[in-house]
Design a protein that fits this description.
This protein has two domains: about 170 residues, Jelly Rolls, CATH 2.60.120; about 55 residues, no CATH class. The strands form four sheets. A five-stranded mixed β-sheet has the order 3-6-11-8-9, with no helix packed on it. A five-stranded antiparallel β-sheet has the order 4-5-12-7-10. By secondary structure, it is mainly beta. It is built from one helix and 14 strands; from the N terminus they run ββββββββββββαββ. About 25% of the residues are buried. Keywords: Signal.
Length: about 240
């Protein structure tokens, strides 16, 4: 049976006897362990963490440590389409054979963004992505960090520590603006098609009338393809 070892407020790591190496999950943004800073215009928000970390492998006593934080970020213009750049910053330490991973996903979507860091390395980590939102006054994002590797008594534990997650709106439009742009594009395409048809008729003889008995001009089209010809014949007396 595992012995609970307190790590920080809201986080408890269970240490199991050698031979039992389960995964351990924790809450990365328990009440009182994170704070937010928002720009005056509301278009950028930084989430600062006191202890958003995952530890596993090596001497940690568990093969895989997992910590999750579910974020809800306010959107200043919920009636439109917004695109946000999301940056993750922190520190990673992994030995050979160990891996640290950052994953993120939006509720209701199957798309998952994943960044993996293989050992050996000890360095600052920065990872980024872009997410979108429409028709809501918040952006929902689930962020999970994972540290894993073989459990042994010789390697240091793998660790991933996130300090901040930054959200910055980089694009915005409204449904009305999108509709107007599509209508304008359709009108431009229609005008271009009419100009091309006029040019084709001129080149292929569509504007030339039949002149007497010895001249013929025809033009025809079906959707995009067009064809025409000019012809003249001479009657030979018998």
């Amino acid at each position: 049976m595992g012995l609970p070892v307190p790590l920080a407020a809201g986080l408890v790591l269970s240490v199991f006897p050698i031979g039992l190496f389960p995964a351990q999950a924790a809450d990365g943004c328990a009440p009182g362990t994170s704070s937010t800073v928002t720009s005056p215009d509301g278009n950028a928000t930084s989430v600062l963490f006191d202890d958003f970390s995952a530890v596993g492998g090596g001497t940690a006593g568990i093969a895989r440590g997992t910590t999750t934080c579910n974020l809800s970020i306010a959107v200043t213009q919920p009636e439109g389409y917004s695109v946000f750049a999301v940056d993750y910053r922190g520190f990673v330490t992994v030995e050979d054979g160990q891996t640290a991973t950052i994953t993120s996903d939006k509720p209701g979507e199957q798309k998952t963004i994943r960044t993996s860091i293989d050992g050996p390395t000890q360095e600052d980590v920065q990872s980024g992505e872009q997410i979108g939102g429409f028709g809501s006054d918040t952006i929902q994002l689930g962020v999970t960090i994972i540290a894993e590797g073989p459990v042994n008594e010789t390697d240091f534990a793998a660790g991933l520590f996130l300090d901040t997650i930054d959200f910055a709106r980089i694009g915005f439009t409204t449904a009305g603006s999108v509709t107007a742009s599509l209508d304008q594009l359709a009108n431009q395409r229609q005008a271009a098609a009419i100009d091309l048809m006029d040019t084709a008729q001129l080149m292929l003889g569509g504007y030339q009338s039949i002149q007497g008995e010895t001249s013929l001009a025809l033009f025809g089209s079906s959707n995009a393809p067009a064809a025409g010809f000019n012809g003249r014949w001479v009657r030979i007396p018998l």
